[in-house]
Every structure is written in structure tokens, then in C-alpha cells.
UniProtKB/TrEMBL annotation:
Pfam families: EamA. This is EamA family transporter. The keyword Transmembrane helix applies. It comes from the Bacteria. InterPro entries: EamA_dom (IPR000620), EmrE-like (IPR037185). Residues 1-136, 149-283 form the EamA domain. Gene3D superfamilies: 1.10.3730.20.
Length: 284
């Protein structure tokens, strides 16, 4: 049964990008991120309720709180950049770059934490990095500046996602993982709405088209469902199998980007996708 939950985790993680893309055709990406985070926060606290770790909040040290906040800020920045990149670029180009955060995380862990990189892991890193480069192409229907902008936001999304992992590794060892995720998501929610208000976009939250609002909410539900399935799969199944299955959500995103948006992969991009998949499997 656990393998079905692992597959469910990959599926819901994969369609999150598709649902998000459908929800930001006219809606501002910052507003969409803020609305979506409300749903994700509900799901994160649902996970806390499932494991019964809410009572541990009073036991969290100041040091851990610091890194919870830092990781929350990094997560929020990553989500804001990711949504902006999806709004400007194709799913089958943005998602691979975001997944490249795995490479950045391993490199930062090596440089900052002294974690070793085995020859097999190094080959995996090179495969993911090379595959990502093969999949990066300029959008044919946009101008030069816009073509570069989506790439910048996608790279920033990956950078902030990797910082989230590093902050978590450094400081969130003294708190139950689901509780840490819920508290961090609370920081993300505050940050997302703060960005909306600072930019003066709060009125846009009331002007979101009904259809797009549905897709934004569904993307939040998909993220929450992915987390719940992932946690359930890890409870009963081996992490060495569950994690690689979850990481293959990129295949779901690429497949649905073709079905929904008719985004086609070139031969070079297809080879790049294969390299990313093989590299991911080698690292885990």
C-alpha cells in the first residue's frame, strides 16, 4: 500500500505546477502565492494533528526558532519566484530548473556543512546539471528580455529552495519535522501577504477570476495532498524507495504540460529530461 502513497505523492507534486500555471494567466503571481499558502498551511497543521506533535511548540529553543523563520523566509522567496517563473515561462522549462535545487543543496552541504560527496553522487549531480542545461531554451513567442526573466526567477526559486534545506539541516533538528513544516509555512504565509501589501496588490485578491481562483486553491490542495501521501509512504515504506519515486514528479509535470498546454520537448530537451531522471535515481 505504501508504494501507492509514494506514487500519489509524486502525482500531486507533479500536477501542482500545472494547476498553478492555470491559475495565474490573469492573476498576479504574488497574490496567487499568498492565497495558495493559506491552503498549504491548513494541510501542514493537519499533518501535525495526525502525528500529535503540536504540544512540542513550547519546547522549541530560540536557536531553532531562528532557523525556522529563516527557512520559512527562504521557502516563501522560493515560492514567489517559482510562481513568477511559471507565469512567464513554460512548465517543461521552469520545473527542471527548480528541481536543480537538489544540486545546489548538495554543493552547499559540502561547502558549509562538510558533508562528503561520493563518486556516485557526483555523477548524479553532473547528470542533473547537464540535463537541466539541455532543457533550458528561450521561449519562441516572447521577446529577449522576457525570455531571460523567467529563467532568472526559476534560478532564484532553486537557490532559495536549496537554502531552505540548508537552514533546516543546520537548525531544525530539535523539532518534529511536521511541526517544523507547519510553523515554517506560517512564516511563508505572513511573508507572502506582506509582499502583497507592500506592493499594493491587496485589491487584486478580490479581483481574481473565479476559474483561476479554483485552480489556485487546487494547487494548494495538491501540495498538501502530496505532503500527506509522502508522509504516509515514509511511515510504512523504505525511504530509499519512497524518495526517488517522489522526486520523479518531474515526469508528471512534463507529461501534463504537454496534455494541457501542448508544450513539446525537443529531442535535446528529452535527452536532458532523461539525464535528470537518471541523475536523481543515482543520487538517492
Amino acid at each position: 500500500m505504501w508504494i501507492l502513497f509514494a506514487a500519489g505523492s509524486a502525482f500531486f507534486a507533479g500536477i501542482t505546477a500545472i494547476l498553478a500555471k492555470c491559475g495565474i494567466k490573469k492573476t498576479d503571481s504574488d497574490v496567487a502565492t499568498a492565497i495558495r499558502t493559506i491552503i498549504v498551511l491548513i494541510f501542514s497543521w493537519l499533518m501535525v494533528a495526525l502525528v500529535g506533535s503540536a504540544s512540542q511548540v513550547s519546547q522549541i529553543s530560540a536557536y531553532t526558532w531562528l532557523f525556522l523563520i529563516l527557512s520559512g523566509l527562504a521557502t516563501g522567496a522560493s515560492w514567489l519566484c517559482y510562481f513568477r517563473a511559471l507565469q512567464m515561462g513554460d512548465v517543461n522549462k521552469v520545473v527542471p530548473i527548480d528541481k536543480c535545487s537538489t544540486v545546489l543543496t548538495v554543493l552547499l552541504a559540502f561547502l558549509l556543512l562538510g558533508e562528503p560527496i561520493s563518486p556516485k553522487k557526483l555523477i548524479g549531480l553532473l547528470a542533473i546539471g547537464g540535463g537541466t542545461l539541455l532543457m533550458i531554451q528561450k521561449k519562441e513567442s516572447t521577446g529577449q528580455a522576457k525570455g531571460r526573466s523567467w529563467l532568472l526567477y526559476a534560478v532564484l526559486s532553486a537557490v532559495f529552495a536549496s537554502l531552505t534545506s540548508i537552514f533546516g539541516k543546520i537548525g531544525i533538528t530539535g523539532v518534529e519535522s511536521n511541526l517544523g513544516t507547519a510553523l515554517r509555512t506560517g512564516v511563508v504565509l505572513v511573508m507572502a501577504w506582506l509582499v502583497v501589501f507592500v506592493k499594493g496588490k491587496q485589491s487584486m485578491a478580490r479581483q481574481v477570476p473565479g476559474k483561476e481562483l479554483v485552480f489556485i486553491l487546487l494547487s494548494g490542495i495538491a501540495t498538501g495532498a502530496s505532503w500527506l501521501c509522502y508522509y504516509r509512504a515514509l511511515q510504512d515504506g523504505p525511504a530509499s524507495v519512497v524518495v526517488p519515486i517522489d522526486k520523479l514528479s518531474i515526469l508528471v509535470s512534463i507529461a501534463f504540460s504537454y496534455v494541457v498546454f501542448r508544450e513539446r520537448l525537443s529531442k535535446k530537451a528529452a535527452i536532458g529530461l532523461l539525464c535528470i531522471v537518471l541523475g536523481t535515481l543515482m543520487m538517492l
